[in-house]
Design brief:
heterodimer; A: 385 residues; elongated; B: Immunoglobulin-like; five-stranded mixed beta sheet
């Protein structure tokens, strides 16, 4: 009941926010403007002591390489009214070796009847995503965002007989729509600029949850959960973002959630996912900055199961493959990422950013056996107009 | 239920009264009005212009720009805003177009009539003269006549030396863009000064005093100003400059009378 209550609350908040976007007259500033009198007095007094002025509510992102977060972070900034930004991101993620908890498992460990006792084990997996997104400053309060990914997955397996086979799936993933709400911003020369915004969004189930491929079990076999291109459910995407900048240093913190609503047409739902990003960047020149980022993620096991998915094999009902088991999907992970952001000279009034980021987990606990992530790589091109 | 209805009714009346009070100035007939002629002088050494090396769009804005915040000519102060305070009824707002001495061809055009009708015509990376006036709760039309993007950032402060500047708008002005933005009184709070800057071009800075009646003037190249069609009575005349501060004088206007006044600012 408690979970359901939270779900309804989040759903209400989301619908309420869209209602506000659609039906309210044009907003004229950050949501908390005028409600932070005590804070402003205190900040203003400190600024005056230093002979400075306090500016409230300026969300302008100066044109600098680190004005956008590392490319692996999304919805990190808002836009001025009337401003567009188009982004193309490419992500490559490689997973290898099986893990249970924090222990790595060998192929034999997974296949051995005396250990995990599966008939087939994944050996490695690559996920590639081409993500196309657009952001638009609707007014002084709300920035809208839409994103559509094209996903390509490949998983290599080995069975007890030592035979290898590979499965593939590809297609469009889930579509994400979001509204970013400016909450509050303040700045003085000595303490820098500090900005807060609320992330509200929804993920629509446009990704295929019935991908098939040829396997030793037969042609066009239904592929297990990690090979699917979407969740199959409408998901809520709440979050909160804080960013700061002072001189050549910038930083940020973002908490985002993916909360699943209901069950999909296959009768299951993926576990909720929560992530926290914190990053810092240094601007070495007007055109280049480097960044370091910590990304913590926790995701939960699947609830119920896809009844059409084969989970055992043979008369002895040997478990088929770990990826087909809903209770072997959860985990948590802490990634350390390093990145470079480059701002190109303005071309025909367009602001161009090229951003690259790569990194690897420094901790991961998996409800396994599950493939562990080895490393990931991001590259993105952003055009602001 | 009846008690609740009464409370709601009284609250509505209170709110409507409040709304009415915020739109206090009423345009009407102005008979036998008097006129104030004045001059603003300056003594001392005026601060020199701020100089900027243009980093963005030098092909449009020029390689170097300057910003003169205190403009004087032979001891006379240009650009001081003079306002007759507290006038609730009288002549319509005047129609006028003003340009400053800043590089570029920006212009503040006041359409006049029942409202101030400010239009900010941005041209040559220049919003308009350094000083001007603005009214709360009415749309200001921003026209970008440049072929480059400007990013309008407007904020309000309680006074010239206010330590808290509150952002009113962050607004992209695309090339050839024309948009209307209202400066709502609830957001202006008790702010009396609006500053507009371009976040992309730091030399584009302007200062606008918030007026609520048409009895205002901006001193010209010889420091002169005129305010006419003033109903007889005693008023407070305020002169305000973004750098030099403000001065007030009590003035008594007689029917069809001419009153000469003078203000002097000193910079030690």
């Amino acid at each position: 009941m408690k979970t359901r209550g939270i779900r309804y609350l989040l759903f209400g908040l989301l619908m309420g926010s869209y209602g506000l976007v659609c039906f309210l007259p044009p907003a004229e500033g950050a949501v908390l403007d005028g409600l932070m009198g005590g804070v402003e007095e205190s900040l203003g007094k400190r600024a005056e002591e230093k002979g400075e002025r306090l500016i409230i509510g300026n969300f302008y992102q100066a044109e600098r390489p680190d004005s956008h977060a590392p490319i692996g972070v999304m919805q990190d900034h808002t836009h001025n009214k009337g401003e567009f930004m188009f982004t193309y991101r490419y992500m490559y993620m490689y997973m290898d070796k099986m893990r249970n908890g924090t222990d790595n498992l060998s192929i034999n460990d997974v296949l051995s009847p005396s250990r995990e006792n599966f008939a087939v084990t994944p050996k490695n997996m690559t996920t590639q995503m081409h993500m196309f997104s657009a952001m638009y400053g609707l007014n002084d309060t709300v920035t809208l965002m839409a994103m559509l990914p094209y996903v390509m997955k490949e998983m290599e397996h080995q069975n007890r007989a030592g035979a290898n086979f590979t499965t593939h799936s590809s297609g469009f993933g889930d579509t994400k729509l979001a509204a970013l709400w400016r909450l509050y911003a303040f700045e003085t020369p000595s303490i820098g600029a500090h900005r807060f915004h609320l992330n509200t969004g929804v993920s629509l189930p446009t990704g295929d949850i019935n991908p098939t491929d040829n396997t030793p079990l037969g042609n066009n076999s239904l592929l297990p959960y990690p090979m699917r291109l979407g969740s199959g459910t409408v998901d809520l995407l709440p979050g909160l973002t804080y960013t700061g900048v002072r001189n050549d240093v910038s930083w940020g913190f973002q908490a985002l959630g993916t909360v699943r609503i209901g069950y999909n047409q296959q009768g299951y739902k993926e576990g909720n996912r929560y992530q926290v990003n914190s990053w810092g960047a240094y601007r070495w020149a007007k055109w280049i900055s480097t960044s370091a980022r910590l990304n913590w993620q926790q995701w939960y096991n699947i609830k119920r199961e896809d009844g059409q998915l084969q989970t055992t094999v043979g008369a002895s009902q040997t478990p088929l493959v770990p990826t087909a088991y809903p209770k072997l999907q959860g985990g948590q992970r802490l990634d350390l990422m390093g990145g470079v952001n480059i701002l190109f000279p303005e071309f025909r009034g367009l602001e161009n950013h090229l951003n690259v980021e790569a990194g690897a987990p420094i901790y991961q606990y998996l409800d396994g056996p599950q493939l562990r992530q080895a490393w990931s790589f991001w590259v993105g091109w952003q055009i602001v107009m | 239920m009846k008690k609740r209805h009464i409370i709601v009714f009284l609250a509505s009346v209170f709110l409507m009264t409040g709304v009415t009070l915020t739109h206090a100035y009423e345009v009407g007939e102005a008979h036998n009005g008097g006129t104030i002629h004045g001059q603003v002088t300056f003594s001392g050494n005026p601060p020199g212009p701020l100089r900027f090396t243009v980093e963005k769009n030098p092909e449009i804005c020029g390689q170097e720009r300057s910003l003169l915040k205190v403009e004087t000519h032979n001891g006379f102060l240009t650009g001081a805003v003079v306002v007759l305070e507290g006038v609730k009824k009288g002549k319509p707002f005047p129609m006028q177009a003003l340009r400053g001495n800043l590089p570029g061809e920006g212009e503040f055009r006041y359409q006049g009539g029942n409202s101030l009708g400010l239009q900010v015509k941005t041209k040559g990376c220049n919003f308009g003269p350094f000083t001007g006036v603005i009214a709360a709760d009415e749309a200001v039309r921003f026209q970008n006549q440049d072929m480059i993007k400007h990013v309008l950032h407007s904020f309000v402060s309680k006074d010239t030396k206010g330590r808290i500047l509150r952002t009113v708008h962050n607004q992209d002005l695309s090339p050839r863009d024309e948009i209307d933005r209202v400066f709502p009184s609830d957001k202006m709070k008790d702010g009396v000064v609006v500053r507009i800057i371009c976040n992309r071009h730091d030399f584009m800075q302007n200062w606008l005093y918030v007026v609520d009646n048409p009895y205002f003037a901006i001193s010209d190249q010889e420091g002169r100003f005129t305010i006419d069609e003033i109903q007889p009575g005693t008023y407070t005349l305020l002169v305000r400059h973004p750098v030099l501060g403000e001065q007030r004088q009590e003035v008594t206007i007689e029917a069809r009378g001419d009153l000469q006044v003078g203000f002097q600012f000193v910079n030690e």
